[in-house]
């Protein structure tokens, strides 16, 4: 017996249509490589519309569009179809395979990678990487390359050494179904289609904990890492828990079917190190929640902030630490700064939230900016995105504006000070405790 079911996302497809049309009309500026940095990387943000139960299209209802038309006309034709208007927009993510030494091992990401010399441009690099990693040809007639999102310079997190320029490109497929994906086992553990509704929902906002002691592995080894972990705890970043509508696992990756000998042969010390210091997302752990954070969250935040309800700033949380006394010191030293930055945001600037990882940060670059100097657009660890907004400053020649790191202006300078204060506090507390213990021992020995 058939029953009428409510559509899960009324009104979202028309908004997406407007956003994609605007992205095509007003592309973000090209960001050249800074001095002494030659690497560029591209990622593909791939969208699709999942038909709903009450508006499931028949074979004759699906029109992939005329590839000879302009991008705007193709978007108009696609979104004019009833099944698209009532459909549920989704984004494709990958979970990276676990690889020793890879700082992004097991992370949720977008298909993409570094630009090769044979790539014609940054978009060609995104297309090639999508083909290699997931087996999707984005040059077919049923795919539309809409445009780009803000490019950014990826740098070391606590410094200003540029690593690469990251270039995101937006694609949408006009098919009602997706092609069979061919996952590269050395690169991709799984793919996940996530509804835009879930990404926009406040219900899935959470945090990711990152082991900052990994930064000291080479300098001091295991003992130094353990000491840093015991003092600072974990660093906490804003994140989004992902609810997949469809998942494809790469069953040929090592560890997909657990080995009965897994963990055997390791010494007691090796097991202890793994237990105390490892927090990397294991691509073979199918029960671990999928979390969107880091650079990928930054890219998605730029995009999501263009869609209603435009409330990503209100859902975002400042990065901090799990150690209670350090968290308290950070809160005190950044209180006035956070209030001031929030007033600036509410005065008219609409920003988007992001979170970067423990090793890299990002700089949003506006035309004519010089990243070799201090830049108010700097987006430190866990910074804000660089999405388009209509604020009072940073207006470009085409009349648009770009969201700068308003929420994090000056935050990481205060965070460094807070760490120094915290270390001084811990040393003082430890010295006082040691002195008290020494006096107690002396009294008992007399």
Helix/sheet category: alpha+beta
The largest pleated sheet is described as: 11 strands, mixed
- What is the CA–CA distance across the termini? 91 Å
* CATH topology annotation: Nucleoside Triphosphate Pyrophosphohydrolase
Give start-end ranges of low-pLDDT stretches: 348-356, 363-405
Q: List how many beta strands DSSP finds.
A: 17
Helix content: 25-40%
CATH-assigned homologous superfamily: Nucleoside Triphosphate Pyrophosphohydrolase
Q: What overall form do the CA principal axes indicate?
A: elongated
Share of β-strand residues: 15-25%
Overall pLDDT level: 78
Number of domains: 1
* Order of SSEs: HEHHEEEHEEEEHEHEEHEHHEHEEEEH
Which CATH class? Alpha Beta
Would you summarize the structure shown here?
The protein has 446 residues and is α+β, with helices and mostly antiparallel strands.
Could you characterize the architecture of this molecule?
The protein has a single domain (12-254, 264-426), classed as Alpha-Beta Complex (Nucleoside Triphosphate Pyrophosphohydrolase). It is 32% helix and 20% strand. The protein has eleven helices and 17 strands. α10 (324-346) runs antiparallel to α11 (411-445). The radius of gyration is 24 Å and the shape is elongated.
